[in-house]
Amino acid sequence: MDFFEQVGPAALGSRLRRLSEQMIGQAAEVYSLYHVPVEPRWFPVLYAVATQPERHVGEIAELIGQTHAAVSQVVKELVKQDLVRVQRGEADLRRSVVSLTEKGAALWPTLQQQTADVRQATEALLHETRHNLWLAIGEMEYALSRQSLASRVKAIRDQRVAAEVQIIDYAPQYQPDFKQLNAEWIERYFRLEAADLKALDHPDEYIIQRGGHILLAAYGGQMVGTCALIPMDDTTYELAKMAVSPAAQGLGIGWRLGEAAIAKARSLGAQRLYLESNTKLGPALSLYHKLGFRKTVSGPPSPYERCNIQMELPLFP
Questions:
Q1: What is the per-residue pLDDT across 164-181, written as a single tens digit (0 to 9) for each?
Q2: φ and ψ at 294, to 5 degrees?
Q3: Are 83 and 194 within one domain?
Q4: Does 286 have pLDDT greater than 90?
Q5: C-alpha distances in Å from residue 66, one per residue of 12, 29, 69, 71
Q6: What is the CATH classification number for the domain harbouring 172?
Q7: Among 83, 146, 211, 218, which is least packed, fewest CB within 10 Å?
Q8: pLDDT band at 250 (very low <50, low <70, confident <90, very high)
Q9: pLDDT tens digits, 129-151
Q10: Quick check: 41 and 75 in contact, CB under 8 A?
Q11: Mean pLDDT value across the chain
Q12: 212-237: burial string, b at 16+ Cβ within 10 Å, e else
């Protein structure tokens, strides 16, 4: 079975590349018909220089939708062929502009006629197809400018993962997971402190028996995330010991844990959530902001050396 038939639209990029290579290969034959010493990949730059002379490389790149580096490389090759020249601009001596040489100018009428013939042949080719590829490419480019393919794939993946992640309540057999998940990130950026070890080694005594709760995220048969709710007073819980395994980061698990913790706090009658963090932890702070937390300066003194930011989330009925 043909690879593209088997894989389908997932191989769209590869199929477009195959079509592009096929057309570029046939374009070389077209240039030979007109005895034009130009490579197909030079054409956009040469066309821009001929129709809009005295432009610098950055402007040409913007006009034809290519990178500055790619256009710069083509310009160098065109200079070697004596088709264009690069010189200081009259209006701005600090910038080099590109223009046709005598040889390039002499070649331009033939290239214009070739372009007109190619356009007519391509329009006929498009009429032979059921779907107008030229218009479809424009639609595809617009859609991708609105939302990249990577972000579309991520949304599908996150939706699938969200359905597979289970948020479960703590049980004593999960103590090693609870400790490992937290120790892993703390030791990566800071150091384990005495207050950490009390809660991680004895979560039943220091969290559960004091009216707190621990949630864990199970995915793929493993515990990949956790967080705790620790009562501070009758109306406030601290969101603490939130961790996601590095192997599972980027899957939206932190968001799932945060939402579950907020829902749990509300069910317990909490009116406010509080947390402590460090400004070094950019992704974590971004998650907290998305969950609705905002910086506060009214928190109590922290038992942790690493804490340099306190945040809170009011919870209303």
A1: 889 999 999 999 999 999
A2: -135, 150
A3: no
A4: yes
A5: 21, 24, 8, 7
A6: 3.40.630.30
A7: 146
A8: confident
A9: 888 888 888 998 899 899 988 88
A10: no
A11: 90
A12: bbbbbbbbeeebbbbbbbbbbeeebb
**C-alpha distances out from residue 141 to 94, 154, 179, 199, Å:** 35, 19, 48, 52
Other beta carbons within 10 angstroms of residue 20's beta carbon come to: 10
- Are 174 and 310 in a shared domain? yes
Could you tell me the residue range of the domain that residue 272 belongs to? 164-314
Same domain membership, residue 299 and residue 181: yes
Residue 64 lies in a domain: yes
Whether residue 182 is found in the same domain as residue 263 = yes
Tokens 């967080």 sit on residue: 227
Has residue 299 been placed in a domain? Answer: yes
Can you give the CATH number for the domain in which 76 is found? 1.10.10.10
Q: What does the DSSP assignment read for the chain?
A: --HHHHHGGGGHHHHHHHHHHHHHHHHHHHHHHTT----GGGHHHHHHHHHS-SB-HHHHHHHHT--HHHHHHHHHHHHHTTSEEEEE-SS-TTSEEEEE-HHHHHHHHHHHHHHHHHHHHHHHHHHTSSS-HHHHHHHHHHHHHHS-HHHHHHHHHHHHHHHH-EEEE--GGGHHHHHHHHHHHHHHHS---HHHHHHHH-HHHHTGGGT-EEEEEEETTEEEEEEEEEE-SSSEEEEEEEEE-GGGTTSSHHHHHHHHHHHHHHHTT-SEEEEEE-TT-HHHHHHHHHHT-EEES-PPPPS-TT--EEEEEE---
Query: Which residue among 134, 155, 188 closes a domain?
Result: 134
Against a cut of 0.90, is the pTM above it? no
